[in-house]
Predict the structure.
Amino acid sequence: MTIETVPFAAEAVLNWHTLTEALEAGHRLPRAEVADSFLYRGTDTLLNRAAWIDGLGQLVKTATIFPGNGAHGLASVNGAVTLFADQTGVLEALVDFHLVTKWKTAGDSLLAAKKLARKDSRKILLVGAGTVAGTMIEAYSSAFAGAEFTVWGRNPVASKAFADAHGITAATDLETAVRDADIICTATMSKEPLVMGEWLQPGQHLDLIGAYRPDMREVDDGAMTRGRLFVDSRATTVHHIGEIMMPIASGAISEGDIAADFYDLSKGNYDRRSDDEITIAKNGGGAHLDLMTATYILNAWRAR
């Protein structure tokens, strides 16, 4: 038995367009079975995610999220990804955790943006100046020609350093930056809303990435009521992530207000209906997306 080990160096053979094609194809397969478990210690999280897609395979992804690691010069997110053969359950590959996480997270929101954002979108605001924001510059640039990026972060010094490193503009006023953007991408660990609904403008698209716990959210109830709401998967967002749970609990929205998830792509209703419509996509990043992404990476690595 040969077990593949796929390193981060495999990134050289990956492509954002073919990844989103693989994600769309994965959602034409039977609906994934998923199971998540979360353990919390203060702000630290141990997350185990498992997925099984008939005809594709099985995956277990373990992630540790320690927000305070930066003070020690360590990555705040670490983990491991294991792929198992669909028909036999045999361990098939160990795929670099950071590689899968990077491409899955950005690919998830890129697929949503390709379907929902206006095709002429150019001004892209990144709310949050961390690793994910840097990856989104790569991902969005592959789909929106001539994209102009602005970043806003709660730490102005870190935001300016990020902007200088990526050759983009740092915003000092979030409201002004939101009002001026075509696409707004939030990638923070905020527990309080940062983007307010009253700031949103007709035709905008929001990709909400950061919130992954029940006590996290990045936009307020007003934003959720102003936009047409989409998720990557109802099963991994509605009852798991504060971004959806909190406005449902307050009565601002209901579960029925979610227009579609990625399993509706083939029905043609994961789409923008007009140039003036505001669209909001919540990226929950379930294990089924890790499975699709890790399989795409493994196949690309084998074909190199």
Summary: The chain has a mean pLDDT of 96. The CA atoms of residues 56 and 86 lie 6 Å apart. The longest strand covers residues 44-53.
